[in-house]
Here is the input.
Amino acid sequence: MKISVLTLGCKVNKYESDALIFELRQRGFEATDNLEEADAYIINTCAVTNEAERKSRQMIERARKFNKNAKIFVLGCASQNNPKQFEGRGVQFTMGNACKKQILDEFDSFGTKICDFPSEYEDNLFSAQTLTRAFIKIQDGCNHFCSYCIIPYIRGRSRSRNVESILNEVEKLDENVKEIVLVGIDVSDFKIDGQKGLGKLLSMLDGFGKRLRLSSMEDNLIDEEFLIEVSKVKNFCPHFHLSLQSGSDEVLKKMNRHYSTAQFERSVNLIRNFFPNAGITTDVIVGFPTETEEDFEETLAFVEKVRFSQVHIFPYSRREGTVASKLYGDLPGDVKTERLKRLQTLADRLKKEFISQNKTAKVLIEEKNGKWFEGYSENYIKCFLEDKGDGVKVGDIVEVEILKPFKNGALCKINA
Here is the structure.
């Protein structure tokens, strides 16, 4: 029996899907993450926006084009949020986010099963990863309850993975893996024995000799103690993805974000004191219901002031069940679109300026597309190297000279 596991959404979902594929193969199934002809499809859904839920439903139809008689199983955030949206679409069985591994025991079942969230980290999914970069899940859930966000309701409260389990998985990684990315719903809240533990975990992982990278984190993680600890980790990649969401203090309050722009700026400056060439990337939501034109102008000015190396921009998506959906209305779509375009223009310029400030880099070659080798620098610049027949191959870490902005990254050449 061939099973295709299809993933929408974040790196945590990708990790969990990879773990399901590994377990399926252990049980004797043929399993893939490709959208292709299969006997059954497991669709791991996303619900971060309305559009993400729409794409999750759409994936069912895309799968059916390959095999109209295939069994369809749905799990993840969209089905946790609203399992009824998958009824009448030919889905055989639906699960939520908890107990995801149980889907593998439900191939003959019909209906819906939404489990309660565990109070402890659910440590039963492990992924055998053989690519050059491995995602390692260290945490699940979120306690922040930002007013616009549905994730705490569909992922549960924050819970951290046991350190020994993390180390055990890293120890078993394929030798081809050259970089580890620590992922979670709120990596900043990772704890060891109830105390902040992310810096300590990075120190423990440093001995494996692989590049270490953090996924998205919150401002409250950044202090001098953490940065001193991380600065001693020799394999740490100086890339900090700090979620801003708005450059207006008034909007941040309405979003229930627990910092001011002044606090955020202090965190950025502290990072640059320890890592002068760090890539500092962020997320920004445009068109939050209370965002005025003045608020948006403040966001533009703050993004310019901080000089992010990359900005991921999202139009506000009203999510039923969140505080914002109950208290506020919504801005017109054309207002959101216009603000997104203005911020994107600024973000594109800042990205090119950051790339131009970098002269050299160490790049992990992750793939080859046509004549181009592609990979990321330690500070998260996407680098393109033309294949010159000089022995460079996927999996190599090479020193390059950065020539200029190119495509969605930088044109580079091997540093002779």
